[in-house]
Amino acid sequence: MKKMVVVMMIMMVMVMVSEASMIEQTCKETPDFNLCVSLLDSDPRGSSADTSGLALILVDKIKGLATKTLKEINSLYKKRPELKQALDECSRRYKTILKADVPEAIEAISKGVPKFGEDGVIDAGVEAAVCEGEFKGKSPLTSLTKSMQKVSNVTRAIVRMLL
Amino acid sequence: MAKSDALLPISAREEDPLLSDGSRSDPNAETHGRRRPVKGLLAVSFGLFFIAFYVALIATHDGSRSNDVKIESDGTATKASRAHLAGVSEKSNDQLWKLSGDRNTVAFSWNNSMLSWQRTAFHFQPEQNWMNDPNGPLFYKGWYHFFYQYNPNAAVWGDIVWGHAVSKDLIHWVHLPLAMVADQWYDANGVWTGSATFLEDGSIVMLYTGSTDKSVQVQNLAYPEDLNDPLLLKWVKFPGNPVLVPPPGILPKDFRDPTTAWKTSAGKWRITIGSKINRTGISLVYDTTDFKTYEKLETLLHKVPNTGMWECVDFYPVSKTLVKGLDTSVNGPDVKHIVKASMDDTRIDHYAIGTYFDSNGTWTPDDPTIDVGISTSLRYDYGKFYASKTFYDQNKGRRILWGWIGESDSESADVQKGWSSLQGIPRTVVLDTKTGKNLVQWPVEEVKSLRLSSKKFDMEVGPGSLVHIDVGSAAQLDIEAEFEIKKESLEKILGDASAAAEAEEFSCQKSGGSTVRGALGPFGFSVLAHESLSEKTPVYFYVAKGKDSKLITFFCTDSSRSSFANDVVKPIYGSSVPVLKGEKLTMRILVDHSIVEAFGQGGRTCITSRVYPTKAIYGAAKLFLFNNAIDATITASFKVWQMNSAFIQPYSEEAVRALSRT
């Protein structure tokens, strides 16, 4: 009985490891393997997604990160009123990510015209970088904008696999 | 919705629930005693089987991985893959990031004054929102029709339907109501690109790609509801749609953009549709008699490995001897055929000249080393130009090319200004009868009707000079220029045996732009230039010595200093341009706010650029002539016209009536 159990354990571990390989295979072709794997592994949809599905998961991460960043921007208005102008520009840029880039990417990737998805994903990185630049080196949002840049690069690499 | 720990490393795997069962004691240990050896054997063999299975799984996964992956010590993978786009946007993204941390970067914001200036005066664009591919262009009952991919809801791609506009002259347009919307299951997810064919009785059929309610790409048939309506306002979709679905071996999302049909010698209609098999770009061929049922040929029109998906395939004859357009069905000994495709991977339109074999529907290129889609193969345009489509204009016997010119700015700006994308000025396309090896394109004659006042200039410009050309307003211009390098300057360079064959190393993209000075160039015009030259867009020739002391001429547009804005793409575009013996160097430039279209050597090399100056706008936009050559003096003879607006009108019966009187 014990031996059967051990064998079944081995089976489960093998199945789990081989399913993770699809994510690993895909992430190896992106500029940030660790980030890619951590984003996809932590999502319950990741283990059974095809490339298109993985791309959509990452677009969802972009959406989540943009929402989180907008919340932070909003909270900074009170804490750092002297940064209003930069915060206004950042707010505009991040709203573009949520209202234009993400919906465009979702529609394009789902419908099989990934190049428009690539455009949306690249733009998310651009908007984050522009926001960061508004603070002339003294940004309170650096870790968030940097994350967006990195996630955008990884997502783009996966979207390009669909072309 | 992502949790805040989404960026944290992998969380621990779940505990194996079976572990707890295994640790319970087995009450029937004694009664199982006799079966233990058999069970043991079973367990071991199962174990071996699964280990073997696991190894096989790993082995096959390894096989699909490319060989040049290495994981560096910090865990990032480096790999040269398609994921790494050797293109401008990636570079500018990295640059943008570097700049963003710089304390000296000017924090920049688009204001409405800057953004509203960007709208063009005489290029086709809808009143607002997003546009992409040209669709089904045609001439019918006195009107040029233009359809286009349109998003009625936003300034980014999505919710695509067919926009529609008409013109008498390809320049003055009036917008019409949407021609087709996504109202059937077979185009519920998008009414995508298609082409028109004229039947023998003069009626029109339109084939277009629909994205079905399940996101499968299919081909559908539509036709005008009323052929007596010259405006072709209403379109009817064939109730039996779709007429084509992805064939076996073709993925459901790799089947789009049907072409205009041509007549085969067997009397059937034939179309081609781009696709891909793995990384090989292909063009499928179908024959039909009624546009409702089709016979797929076993042969492909053509295929080229490693070019990826072929979008917007176009296929048409060109005359070898006459400078005129040909109907799509023309064939014969005096004819070559062009295969053109839009490369999804690189967003570049490529074409090649070759021979069509009607008997089996195949085509072979004259020069396979520059086959369609190979990076060095010919392009209609070396700048921003995609999804292009030609049609035969039976009105004036010309083949006319439309090209989608997207934005090069951020989507934030597009949303703020409320629109995105233009069409290039329609161009005539013919084979270059002098070289036989490339097409020649030229803005349609009708664009000249926009010319207002002009000024003519003749000047000699020494090395390292800059001349302000005072033409008043400089955002809407048509410039035609002829240049000659003074004989003495040329002889000096050609005679100098020690002067390296610079042309071998030169490219517009990589040689630093218009401020890098060579012996014989660069020289040309700086358009949309601020008087301080802090913003400018040079369009220029760069002449360099090649092998065997031949001169090679390059034609470039340098947008790297076109704008202070840090969220726009600012590439240097261009290519070498054939210059035949005895020819002077000629260029034509159409400037229309945020678009610059440059034509070198009568249209042998064309470059479309999008530029977004922040200061060189309105009255502050100026025109300069420059010669940055180190040694050469050039003579320039040119004419500059102010260009009127085309006054593209929103839909009204009155606007239609006004146009029909012209």
Would you give an account of this structure?
The complex is a heterodimer of chains A (163) and B (662). Chain A has one domain: Up-down Bundle (Butyryl-CoA Dehydrogenase, subunit A, domain 3), CATH 1.20.140. Chain A starts with a helix and ends with a helix. Chain A is built from six helices and no strands. The model of chain A has no long low-confidence stretch (mean pLDDT 94). In chain A, helix 3 runs antiparallel to helix 4. The radius of gyration of chain B is 29 Å and the shape is globular. The N terminus of chain B is likely disordered. In chain B, the strands form eight sheets. Chain B has a six-stranded antiparallel β-sheet with strand order 26-37-28-33-34-35. Chain B starts with 17 loop residues before the first helix and ends with a helix. The longest helix of chain B is centred in the first third of the chain and has 29 residues. Chain B folds into two domains: 313 residues, Tachylectin-2, Chain A; 192 residues, Exo-inulinase, domain 1 (Jelly Rolls). Chain B has 662 residues and is mostly beta strands. At the A-B interface, helix 1, helix 2, helix 3, helix 4 and helix 5 of A face helix 1, helix 2, helix 3 and helix 5 of B.
